[in-house]
Amino acid sequence: MAAILTNLRNTVIAGIVLLVVIVVVVGLFLNFPMFETKSWWQFFFRWLHVLSGVMWVGLLWYLNFVQVPTMPKIPDELKPAIGKHITPAVLWWFRWAAMSTIVTGLILAWLNGYLVNAIKIGIGDPNTVHTAIGIGMWLGTIMWFNVWFVIWPNQKRALGIVDASPEVKAKSAKTALYFSRTNTLLSIPMLYCMVSAQNGGFG
Questions:
Q1: Of 35, 100, 107, 161, which cross-links 156 as Cys (Cβ 3.0–4.6 Å)?
Q2: Both 55 and 6 in a single domain?
Q3: What distance in Å separates the CA atoms of residue 108 and residue 35, rounded to the nearest whole number?
Q4: Phi-psi region of 122 (alpha: psi -120 to 50; beta: other; left: phi over 0)
Q5: Is 103 exposed, middle or buried (0-12, 13-18, 19+ CB in 10 A)?
Q6: Is the dihedral of CA 136, 141, 146, 148 positive or negative?
Q7: What's the predicted TM-score (pTM) here?
Q8: Under DSSP, is residue 74 helix (H, G, I), strand (E, B) or coil?
Q9: Whole-Å CA distances, 35 to 38, 44, 105
Q10: Do residue 128 and residue 152 come from a single domain?
Q11: pLDDT tens digits for 103-136?
């Protein structure tokens, strides 16, 4: 057991194996032809979408609720370890979780047949589910754009991953912070809209 729990890769693999065992055993017990049904694949991509979103928003909130507010309290001699090791690793998972969330979300909307209606935010369609999911999708798309085309390029300069003058580094750090806080702001209504689409938050 220690070999599994002391190595993150082994822990994740064990989690996936456990999931497969549960799904196969329950599927056989219920005699459910899961891989042959469209509804199962819709569910599977919903699960991937939620899994990716948990990673993305979880890291967004870690950065904004934990790391950034704690940085001023960290002794100066320890701060380089955060910038050189922890933050780049966080940002790698952060941006790829964002990519996975947007891709699986689009696949899910296509599989469920509401992609176009959601993009239109339900305009011309009386279905409030399409309005709710559409608003959530647009907010998520803005957040994804911010991650890849604003936050990450600025963080690369701020962290010294690419060369930049001290003035540019300081400006880039501030820009990255503002857009990260913008994403934190947007994540609150985005999550409400996503959940309400399944649970009637708009009636």
A1: 161
A2: no
A3: 16
A4: left
A5: middle
A6: positive
A7: 0.91
A8: coil
A9: 8, 10, 20
A10: yes
A11: 999 999 999 999 999 999 988 888 889 999 999 9
